[in-house]
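Entry 12.
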Amino acid sequence: MFANLPAPPPTPPWEGMHPLVVHFPIALLLFAAVFVVLAAIVPKRGWWFSVSALILLIGGTVGAGVSVSTGEAARDMVEDGEEEMFDVLQEHEDMANQARSVFVALTVVYAFIVFLPLVAGPLQSWKFSLPANLVFLAALMGANLLLANAAHLGGRLVHQYSVLSALVPEGETAMDEEQAEEAEQDAEQDASSSEADEEEMADGAEEESAAAEAEMEAAAPAAEDDSPVSEAAKEAPSAEAAKEAPEVAPASESAAPEAPEQ
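Predicted 3D structure (tokens):
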């Protein structure tokens, strides 16, 4: 059942993890705003929506920290490029660091908004949750705008300046190249062996046709020698029969009666 499953992809180095992890915090942090809105407009289940928004904020903030760390490692691997590209790279790094710090602060603030009503009973009302969530939503949208700009700069680095991360370690890359060379050599050997087999089959067919032609040429003189003997054997009985048959007088002379003399 599991024998036909494909092999797992190679594990990239830390600097190669950036394109793999950078999209998760963007999605989580942007989607957290939806649950903040639900927490503000649905008072009966507002606290549970707030908890859901907090979980998304925590996951997105942790992912943002990992993305920044891997991005800095990937930046150290960039050596050549245009001056404008390095300016965009520096701006992308600065904006990503700012977004990470802002989301750390927002996550801590929203944790107070979620758990403070559990300690202070008078705050467990819609009069607190509605304005608190709306104010936090405005701050969250500003942070998401900062995050979107940082992501846009990262997209420019990839699609405009072709700044790519190493998804495979150098050792595994060398091994892959050696395996590719071995595969090419095996393919060449298979092709040469198949050509040799075809040549051997062609030579065998030529030898068989030559042998068949030789047999036909050898059988042709024997057939020519046998044909005069058979014709002579056929003509001999007819000649002997003609000799042994008695001579027959013409029918007109034997059948005509002699006329009487008058």
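Annotation: The longest helix spans residues 170-244. The radius of gyration is 52 Å.
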